[in-house]
Amino acid sequence: MNYRREIDGLRAIAVIPVILFHAGFSLFSGGFVGVDVFFVISGYLITSVLLHDMSLGTFSFSDFYERRARRILPALFFVLLVCLPFAWQWMLAGQLKDFGASLFSTATFLSNFYFFSQVNYFATNAEMQPLLHTWSLSVEEQYYFLFPPVLLAMFKFRKMKAIWLVAITTVVSFIVAEYALYQGAEWSFFFAGSRMWEIGAGSLAAFVIQKRGVIPNNSLALIGLAAIWVAFFSYDKSTPFPGRYALLPVAGTTLLILYAGKGTWVAQLLSTRILVSIGLISYSAYLWHQPLFAFTRIRLIHEPSWQLMLTLSLAALVMAAFSWRYIEQPFRGKSPLLQGKKEVYLASVLGLILFASLGAFLYSMKGIPQRLPNNVSALEGMVGQHSSPCTR
Fold first, then answer.
1. CA neighbor of 122 nearest in space, from 234, 266, 37, 235
2. Runs of H (alpha helix) within the chain
3. How far apart are alpha carbons 36 and 111 in whole angstroms?
4. How far apart are CA 244 and CA 229, in angstroms?
5. Rounded mean pLDDT of 44-56?
6. CA dihedral sign of residues 137, 139, 142, 143
């Protein structure tokens, strides 16, 4: 597959507003739609890989999930590991209990279900959840546990059947999201069924590009980029989401994937060195920013200054560059520790079991209140909602 620098630049365009939105900068009031941009990109890239391998007859489930494990888990495990001592030291009993539940759900790729049952994404108390952002990872992994085997079965039967399957799934998922929006259901924000149409849009783009390639078109690419930026700056916490309001960033991202080919103004912009560099570390940046912000808010109790939040935003990029260089990259290939599939699967399973067990322990022990000073119960009563940020 041909590498597209502009896709990495698009990742940067997605992750920066997400970080600044969670940092509390009102200018990027719609920065949360950066996650939707990521969903479309993910659908396009993963489906492109699947179609490439299936067309050549070289697709292997073990290879596919090995690549997913190498891509996702090392950086995730590292961030979770770093979070543990801060959670132990700074969290009150109720907070640590909730953290344990979120740690368990993250390790089992069910954090979207956990958070939609516990917290409103846009509520102030959600800002104190270090692992709140992992809901999107869970949505993606749930999709990719189901999508490859179904796609392979349909692909072997007839390629057009596979396209129709993706198209129908995308439409049905959008209808679910729109219905939930109409009903005012808060859970729709986290629900995989309300989000799969966004990944599906990227998957359909992959089918189109496999057939005819990327057709550079300045006008359509500019429209796509403008659509994303309009959502970034015009949406806010009061915007009903997802559903029809998500069409703007999703359609915009799809237009960029299809038409921002080499030679277009948008591709030249997205291919600049700074954007590509940020795009390369965007996954780690996404992982780091929320724990940094949440633990800072927990430690200070009051809202941090914008200067501090901007500094932490930059720190997230610095930490992302470190983990990309020393965690992500070494494990992408045949690293000395994980040379083969067996080693990758064994390490993945053990790591997931370890973090899930730690989370279950913290939850079952109710945040281990005995680790805190004797007078902490009075303090926990004073901070009220801060003691249990997941409570609605």
1. 235
2. 5-23, 34-56, 61-90, 93-107, 111-116, 135-157, 159-183, 192-212, 218-234, 247-259, 265-270, 273-280, 282-300, 306-323, 329-332, 341-364, 376-383
3. 17
4. 16
5. 89
6. negative
Average pLDDT over residues 78-96: 95
On whether the CB atoms of residues 181 and 228 are closer than 8 A, the answer is no
DSSP, residue by residue, 17-43 = HHHHHHHT-GGGTTGGGHHHHHHHHHH
Contact (CB, 8 A) for 177 and 39 = no
Distance CA 98, CA 184 (A): 26
The answer on pLDDT for 159 being more than 70 is no
Cis link prior to 389 (omega < 30° from 0)? no
Band the pLDDT of 265: cuts 50, 70, 90.
very high
Q: In sequence order, which residues have a C-beta less than 8 Å from that of residue 99 and are 6 or more positions away?
A: 83, 87, 91, 129, 130, 131, 359, 362, 367
Distance (Å, whole) CA 12 – CA 164: 31
371's tokens: 């680790």
Interhelix angle for 273-280 vs 5-23, to 10°? 70
State residue 163's pLDDT score: 85
> How crowded is residue 78: how many other Cβ atoms within 10 Å of its Cβ?
19
Q: Does residue 384 carry a pLDDT above 70?
A: no
Entry pTM: 0.91
74 C-beta neighbours (distance < 10 Å), count = 25
Distance CA 262, CA 264 (A): 6
- CB neighbours (10 Å) of residue 176? 20
Tokens at 190, concatenated: 């986290």
Enumerate residues 6+ apart whose C-beta is below 8 A from 142: 109, 112, 192
- State the Cα–Cα distance between residues 246 and 202, nearest whole angstrom: 14
d(CA 252, CA 234): 15
| pLDDT over 60 (residue 388) | no
- Return the number of other C-beta atoms located less than 10 Å from residue 6's C-beta: 26
